[in-house]
Amino acid sequence: MSVDPQGPVLIEGPVEIVLDDGTVARSDRFVVAVCTCRRSRTYPWCDTSHRCRERGGPPPEDRNPR
């Protein structure tokens, strides 16, 4: 198992997770990324929603260096 403080918990599969409502989520993958931030649209599996999203490129003054 591997824990990234800014991301998911990586667990060697196969994995079964019992959710709060009693539903069991299963994955047969070799390594499973389990969401810890609860932002994932595929919860309990991580979809990288924890990552900061930045739009566009560098600020205009950095696009054409002299």
Alpha plus pi helix count? 1
- What integer value in Å does the Rg equal? 17 Å
Range of strand content: 25-35%
In whole angstroms, the N-to-C terminal distance is 48 Å
Low-pLDDT stretches: none
For the report, how would you describe the main beta sheet?
A: 3 strands, antiparallel
| Structural class by secondary-structure content | mainly beta
Q: What is the strand arrangement across the widest sheet?
A: 1-2-5
Order of helices and strands: EEEEEH
| Nearest-integer average pLDDT | 82
Helix content: under 10%
Tell me, briefly, the overall form: elongated
Number of strands: 5
Protein described:
This protein is mainly beta and 66 residues long. Helix content is 6%, strand content 27%. The chain is built from one helix and five strands; from the N terminus they run E-E-E-E-E-H. It has one helix at 60-63; strands at residues 2-3, 9-12, 15-18, 24-27, 31-34. The strands form two sheets. It has a three-stranded antiparallel sheet with strand order 1-2-5, with no helix packed on it. A two-stranded antiparallel sheet has the order 3-4. The longest helix is centred in the last third of the chain and has 4 residues, at 60-63.
Question: Topology of this protein?
Answer:
Layout: E1 2-3, E2 9-12, E3 15-18, E4 24-27, E5 31-34, H1 60-63
Antiparallel strand pairs: 1-2, 2-5, 3-4
Brief account:
It is built from one helix and five strands; from the N terminus they run βββββα. With 66 residues, it is mainly beta.
